[in-house]
Write a structure and sequence with these properties.
Layout: E1 12-14, E2 21-23, E3 27-30, E4 45-48, H1 49-53, H2 63-70, H3 77-92
Length: about 100
């Protein structure tokens, strides 16, 4: 006979945002690729419900690739943010706005 699924939710997970340990049943899965429905071969991180509610739930298509493109070891936060701003502006501004 199959066990009740509630037994599996008794384990604790750590919220990647605040560091609190919460019951798995009191947490939400976080998938940095943005597709928690594709589960094969993935290991999920978790957020407590409070931190999850504070997230922006807008699409983040291509975000991971953009961050990898501009990331360099040992650059300052200021330089990283300048590169990010420039990359987003370049990728998403309309063709008529370029060069302004």
């Amino acid at each position: 006979m199959w066990r009740s699924r509630t037994n599996g939710d008794r384990k604790r997970v750590v919220c990647i945002a605040c560091g609190d340990a919460v019951l798995r049943s009191a947490a939400r899965e976080y998938d940095k690729e943005g597709n928690r429905w594709e589960r094969h071969g993935k290991r999920f991180e978790h957020l407590c419900k409070s931190c999850y509610r504070g997230l922006c739930h807008q699409p983040r298509e291509e975000l991971e690739g953009l961050l990898i493109d501009i990331e360099e070891h040992s650059i300052s936060n200021e330089e990283f943010l300048l590169r990010y701003f420039d990359a987003v502006k370049e990728r998403y501004e309309s063709p008529g706005e370029r060069g302004r």
